[in-house]
Amino acid sequence: MTISLGAFRLSFFIGVCSCLLLPPPTGTYHVGSKAHVLNKTTINDPVAPSGTGTSILINFYYPTLRKSVEREYIWKGLSSLYEEYYNLPKDSFGRIKARIGHDAPPLSPTTCEHLNLPTLIWGPPFAGPPSQLFLGLFSELVSRGYTIVTVDHPYEQPFLQYPNGTGIQGLAMDFYPGNPEVFLNQVVNYRLDDNAVLLRNLPELSEKTGISLNLTHFAIFGHSIGGAVAPLQILYEKALRNTSRETSHFIGAINLDGGMFGAAISNNSFSDTGVPNLLMASQGHQHDMDPTWPTFEAWQSAWTTDVRVLGNSNHTDYSDLIVLKQANGVAGGRNTIQANRMIDLVRIFVRTFFDMVGGRIGGEGILSGSKQARIDWPEVVWQFQRD
């Protein structure tokens, strides 16, 4: 595969100054971030040392007019764990930089109202990487005007750092539970509850942080188990609608490479989210390997598309890890999709979906799988499409 000019520039920059830059976003706005600890009790928490969780970590990624300097953005406690895991020298991962402004001033309420975009809710994979390592994707969406709210559950992720500097070490990156089905269903259940608590508290959080949020329309996305929870959350909220007025209006969901759980694969009409869904798989994630995807897709009444990325893509390539691993020689090689190409691909597919469900564009854009789309993205296979 031919290495792109962007990849050449990246490798040149690494060689000159021994640092690494996350590919910059392409939109108008700069990226701001703000962290918040939300008190939330999780009874029978399978990952909390005491058996009871007491909080969740919320991060806001939002558009700002203030340009930021390039800075290292990964917590030292997290980067050191990955360096140890991959047997790399100190700061091999921690040296990556991006333009992000912590506590930067958000856009005015008037500007946000004019943009009229849904608030995006994000869920990370199980046992890492945490939300922080998806900045390559987040920064692109934020630069286009979207605000993203991420939810990380303490002691599940390998490492989280709270705003006061407290580090919380959790499960090992290669953690495997003794009874996977029971354990992962417990994780899915507390993820659903974490998101529900967040949604109930968003009006207060918006006021407290000064970040204007769309409090009526949401879209949800995530990677791995976070992706599996995305459509499930919509089904969860639909069930709440039948018993309570406290419900949120979701207009779409994206699952990045996560197998489905629970009601999403009940194989009946209860699996129907009633809203558009985009599913993106890595090369090995085929329907014969994971029948939960075709089971889910068969019951969807709204627009649903399922694509698979070739080029030896793997599960973690949807995160910033693809940049870090290829730059450090942990991954890559012949016939492997290059980091910049993968980041560009995920950015444009995810962004196009949110632009579509949010009414920014007419039609499906690149997601249609048109002849031109397949020429432009030969490494993408359209596995399922429902208009």
From TrEMBL:
InterPro entries tied to this protein: AB_hydrolase_fold
Signal peptide residue numbers: 1-19
GO biological process, one term: lipid catabolic process
EC id: 3.1.1.47
Protein name per Swiss-Prot or TrEMBL: 1-alkyl-2-acetylglycerophosphocholine esterase
Molecular functions (GO terms): 1-alkyl-2-acetylglycerophosphocholine esterase activity
Protein keywords: Hydrolase, Lipid degradation, Lipid metabolism, Signal
Annotated organism of origin: Corynespora cassiicola Philippines
SUPFAM superfamilies the UniProt entry points to: alpha/beta-Hydrolases
Keyword Signal: yes
Alphabetical list of Gene3D superfamilies matching this protein: alpha/beta hydrolase
